[in-house]
Amino acid sequence: MTISRRELIKVGLAAGTALSIPSVLRAQTPPPAARTVRMVKGDLTIFDPIFTATNITGDHGAAIYDTLFAVDSKFMPQPQMVGKSGVSDDKKIYTFELRDGLGWHDGTPVTAADCVASIRRWAQVTPGGQLIMERAKDIAKKDDKTFTIALKEPLGILIDILATLPCPTLFIMREKDAERPATEQVTGNIGSGPFKFNHNLAKPGASFTYDRNDKYVPRKEPSDGFAGGKVVNVERVTWENIADQQTAMAALQAGEIDYFETPPADLYSVIGSDPNLELQILNKTGLDVVLRLNHLQKPFDNVKARQAMLSLIDQDAYMRVMSSDPKYSSTVVSLFGTGTLYYNDENTGWYKKGGDPEKATQLFKEAGYAGERVVILQPTDWAESSNASQLLAAALRNIGVNAELAPSDWGGVAARRANKGPIENGGWNMFITTNTGYSNSNPLGTPLLTANGDKAWYGWPKSDEYEALRAKWADVETVDERKALARKMQKVWWDFVGDVRLGGYVQPIARRKTLTGLIGIPVLVPMWNMQKA
């Protein structure tokens, strides 16, 4: 009789015994102390949270850097590094004064010059930042603790943009780091945030360690979402890179780790029944699964080929391999996510339950597809995306498309997706990613909802008509007006096919019950406020 991997793990967990863990892991990982938290999150390979929109890099940024403003649990912007702020009567000049007690991990004080340089660098790669720069007359230091943003015309959502949560988040860096172009990585890992990056214990590919910054001065307000006092209740947090989910699950059950960010969906019921473990949904807005297409290279430089992908996708099939429990998954047909304020059904006639392979075949033919290789980036250390990538390759091959998987870890995907060249020069055609429903409700906050060509997110979609509509978002005053604008934007998006949605799901994390105080907020996983019994 053949015993499946799932059955094997169930037997081990149900019996209350840990599955075998490699001796190397046991040798290198001493039993966790009461004030040390061990987390399995993935492989951190890029450390600059402005250089990339990858969430794990955003989590790294949230640990070691700080922000001018932050959103609370109701997604309202609140001051964080800023102590005082004001705006002129004509609404064109904003003045910001830093609060007391802000210092870099190297012992130097945070200054207004650091903030100015950080805003300018962040604005190179984010839609909201680009809007600020379009309307800014100047962003300048006034004194060591004060800086101003002078606008050519009012921008009522300026502070909302500065507090935007989706990656790249506006993390404040030292001036000498922020003076680098956003296309060049900052590698110093020196911030002013509640944790310090422990360079001496860094083991690339194995683990990274963060120590409590005992000189950090939290705000006096209670923690509320990403805002309020960032109080650190543990001395050390270590991110273990355990790519194999079976090994990670066994380590969690054995108490060798405290937190597992992406537990396998087929074991949710087992985790829920373990008296020592608990599933917890931190991101209640869920994740939309997004298929990014490279608009610069064949065949997806042709709109017919992109429309073919809309017809080909069977969302139910993708959700079965990414979230095996139906109660955690849903269909996504709106550009603005499911259940968000701006969700709508405009121009969604392309959706057909089960997909429409015949129509997809015809559209590829109309696009002039001639058997070119189509390379799909496959992250092997993200099981759900890896499985979905294989399903995607099979679906394409079934209609005669020469699909090829390019397996690597997620770090490899994050690096390769920046290549705009043809596949012969290390380029790509497709990759799967996710974006939160919260992020998809704000086209000025998430790079995934841009279509400004070379300035757009990976895939580089271009539609002047869509961008003209998106530019109006900042000046629309009422929710009803934004809803009407969202419908117009969605109609254009699905016409030129900026990307393709594969469905949506809610993904709980798994933790030991001794770890409490996790902050439930979309996009990022803060490490302050955590407590360990």
Structure description:
The protein is α+β, with helices and mostly antiparallel strands and 533 residues long. Helix content is 28%, strand content 20%. It contains 16 helices and 23 strands. The strands form six sheets. Strands 10-11-12-1-13-21-14 form a seven-stranded mixed β-sheet. Strands 16-20-15-19-17-18 form a six-stranded mixed β-sheet. The chain has a four-stranded antiparallel β-sheet with strand order 5-6-8-7. Strand 5 and strand 6 form a beta hairpin. The longest helix is centred in the last third of the chain and has 18 residues, at 479-496.
Strand content: 15-25%
- Quantity of strands, as a count: 23
Q: Tell me roughly what share of residues is in helical segments.
A: 25-40%
* Overall average pLDDT: 91
The major β-sheet equals:
7 strands, mixed
Question: Uncertain regions: pLDDT < 50 for 5+ in a row?
Answer: 1-31
Characteristic key phrases:
533 residues, seven-stranded mixed β-sheet, 23 strands, globular, disordered N terminus
Write the layout of secondary structure elements.
Blueprint: H1 5-14, H2 23-28, E1 36-40, H3 55-64, E2 66-67, E3 69-71, E4 77-79, E5 82-87, E6 93-98, H4 112-122, H5 127-135, E7 136-143, E8 146-151, H6 158-162, E9 171-172, H7 175-178, E10 195-197, E11 207-212, E12 236-240, H8 245-254, E13 259-260, H9 268-273, E14 277-280, E15 287-293, H10 303-312, H11 315-322, E16 329-330, H12 357-366, E17 373-379, H13 383-398, E18 402-408, H14 410-416, E19 430-436, H15 464-470, H16 479-496, E20 500-505, E21 509-512, E22 515-516, E23 531-532
Parallel strand pairs: 1-12, 1-13, 17-18, 17-19
Antiparallel strand pairs: 2-9, 3-4, 5-6, 6-8, 7-8, 10-11, 11-12, 13-21, 14-21, 15-19, 15-20, 16-20, 22-23
